[in-house]
Design the sequence.
């Protein structure tokens, strides 16, 4: 598993925020999840390991077309992402992007079933 690299994560977070506004049940969403998952350190401190597990579950739910669990996983991932924004060592710009992504994920969780 790769180590989290904040320098390369900034653009990826911007891409993630934009992707979350799209159709998260579509096939490209699963490939986008693979890209995001490579940025996380599953054994790292803080929320990264839990985020990686939630993304793994989300990918499975997307493949199964399980809308209820997609919604739940997006909400949980949004909460974890928002939590990651407040962790020690996260600079102000990264924290802002993580908060925006967390909010977008939580908003998407309420619209994915619609």
Sequence:
């Amino acid at each position: 598993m790769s180590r989290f690299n904040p320098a390369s994560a900034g653009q990826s977070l911007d891409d993630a925020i934009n992707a979350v506004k799209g159709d998260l049940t579509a096939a490209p969403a699963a490939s986008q999840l693979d890209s995001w998952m490579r940025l996380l350190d599953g054994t790292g401190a803080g929320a990264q390991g839990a985020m990686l597990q939630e993304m793994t579950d989300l990918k499975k739910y997307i493949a199964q077309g399980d809308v209820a669990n997609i919604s739940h996983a997006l909400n949980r991932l949004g909460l974890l992402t928002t939590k990651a924004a407040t962790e020690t060592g996260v600079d102000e710009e990264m924290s802002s992007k993580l908060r925006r992504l967390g909010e977008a994920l939580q908003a998407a969780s309420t619209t994915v079933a619609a």
Remarks:
- Residues 1-6 have pLDDT under 50 and may be disordered.
